[in-house]
Write a structure and sequence with these properties.
GO terms for molecular function: catalytic activity. The protein has twelve helices and 13 strands. By secondary structure, it is an alpha+beta fold.
Amino acid sequence: MLNHDQLGELLGTLCPMFVLLDGDGTIRQAGPTLQKLRSDRPMPGRAFLDVFDLVRPRSITSFRDLMASDSVKLSVKFRDEPRTALKGLVSPLPDGGAVINLSFGISILDAVRDYALTSADFSGTDLAIELLYLVEAKSAAMEASRSLNLRLQGAMLAAEEQAYTDTLTGLKNRRAMDHILEHLVSSKATFALMHLDLDFFKAVNDELGHAAGDHVLSEAARIMLEETRNDDTVARIGGDEFVLIFRGLSDRDVLQRIAERLISRLQQPMDYQGQTCAISASIGTALSAQIPSMDPADILNAADVALYEAKRSGRGCHRFYCEQEKAGH
């Protein structure tokens, strides 16, 4: 027959969350892990019901009731903060005392965090350790998955952005312009579309080389962006062809002033490695309200007709689309 000290030592190894009680409900010994939860307040010598608040069963209100409940399952909480919830099982002893084996139950994750518990604080056969490992592994896997998803989303966004961007100028490309036009037409929005062509650009390429031509295209793109609003679209749709879409704008006077500023700035000589690149711009503009079909191809064709008229008028100028031009073209 084990004495209380020997029993306590054995329980400390097998059940580190045990409480050994005397016949009057006083705590004789507490398991090392249980005592760690109140390291500054020794439990031996204190009444069990002074340390713990008995939550369930509600029918038990005294230590005598507790002793009469062989193998009953308990739910208890510490009476002081933090009020950690514990599960327990009562086993009466022949001398009138009892052993209560406690565990954290589903609150184990909070307990490990709140009390800095390690595997040494649990019995070697306690499945709580495996649970903690599984939770940690799941957390690591979920974090890795989130990180991977973020990288994939970033890569998809970058690929999508690249698919809609002209690599030389950073402007929208033909594909992006088509997508924007379809959206504007389907939503029956009001807009103006300018088709801009750089005059004499081929001469720059032929005389000064493609590097000079690339420089001119990049400078032209910068000027177009500076002369448009954030909600407008500037797209490079060909070698030296650009389309500018002005959302919600149909005022001819405003559009004429924008076109004149673009032509004025683009005809200013551009320097490239000490050499002068001279170009100009011809612009044709069509208004969405002019095209009853509201078909993107028809709107682009109308702006192209107006551009042709601008070039036929001597280049370096701007023309609006009209039905008479279409008939003449």
